[in-house]
Amino acid sequence: MKKLVKFAASASTTLMTTASLLIGSSSALAATKWDMPTPYADGIHHTKNVRMFAEEVKTLSKGELNIKVHSGASLFKHGEIHRAIRTGQVPIGELFMAMLGNHDEVFKLDNIPFLATDFESAKKLWDSSRPAVEKSLAKDGLKLLFAVPWPPQGIYSKKPVSAIGDLAKLKMRSYSPTLSRLSVLLKATPTTVQTPEIPQAFSTGIIDAMITSPSTGVSSQAWDYVSYYNDAQAWIPKNMVIVHNRSFKRLPKAVQAVVMKAAADAEKRGWEMAQQETQAKTEALAKNGIKVSKPDAQLQADLAKLGEIMTKEWAKAAGDRAKQILDAYNK
Ligand code: PCA
To answer: What is the chain's percent helix, strand, coil content, to nearest 5?
Structure first.
């Protein structure tokens, strides 16, 4: 009994984390409940995958750890999720990796155009950068559980885009410091808009173009505001699921192992889901009347040049870590 009380007392120190005693259960002595904020809507593959992860944790831990997923930024706004985990308000959560670009340069890598544009290269880039990402998170007392890509990013616009000059002067939606920098290089004006606000931002004229995935194009019903999707496949960004170290260590060893197993499964499954999502959602864009096209050679060459500039800028800003990552990636 002593042990139970100790567990319940330590777990209760984390706000919104509750430990309850399962009296009479033979397999589980104490159950822990974790609230998990995620930023994106239920129809997105990331959210589906996170729910499967929570389910697997519950099953494998025989109910000892119960993760309650709060999707669609319903518990915390996307911009608040990182801090909520860091400060222990919630033990676990999901966020877009490159949102932390101003927190640490290492996260900017995730949105650099034309560095890794197909899933195989994106996976290689992730394998090369993962140790640096884990190290950066660890400095804040955080642990990486898994990272899963979005479909490749393309250009949504009201008029066709055949060279980068067509993007100049546009009001471009941004979702990360790296994308804002790209917008400036394109001579467009970036405005940060989170996914739930995309329809309103278009309808009120705050933005008139965006670079994102077919998933987000579909979830924001882009056909109501734009007519063209240029499948430029500019980069393949990721979401990551992170946990507060203290909350993780408080779990019994066997449950920690369950979380890591479910995380590895979620990462593997998520990379497969992203590829299926790419095809399904690109088809959905076309079905809803958006003209889907591949980039002209000129546009591709123009964008590749900007990618080189941004890779150099990043390598300079991120120093030794950048060199290590890029050397490993280019090997
Ligand atoms: N959708 C998210 C991030 C990347 C993506 O494809 C967004 O647009 O905010």
So the answer is: 55, 20, 30
Atom of ligand 1 nearest to the CA of 173: 8
Q: Which of 226, 241, 244 is nearest to 90 (CA)?
A: 244
Max Cα–Cα distance, the chain, nearest Å: 71
Q: What is the pLDDT of residues 9-65, one digit of tens each?
A: 343 333 333 333 333 344 445 799 999 999 999 999 999 999 999 999 999 999 999
CATH of range 154-234+290-329; options 3.40.190.170, 2.40.50.140, 3.30.470.20, 3.40.980.10: 3.40.190.170
Fold match flag (32-151+237-284 vs 154-234+290-329): yes
Q: Is the Cβ atom of 136 under 6 angstroms away from ligand 1?
A: no
214 lines ligand 1 (CB under 6 A): no
Would you list the domain boundaries of the chain? 32-151+237-284, 154-234+290-329
Is residue 235 within 6 Å of ligand 1 at its C-beta?
no
Per-residue pLDDT tens for 210-263?
A: 999 999 999 999 999 999 999 999 999 999 999 999 999 999 999 999 999 999
Q: Does 213 sit in the ligand 1 pocket, CB within 6 Å?
A: yes
d(CA 54, CA 263): 9
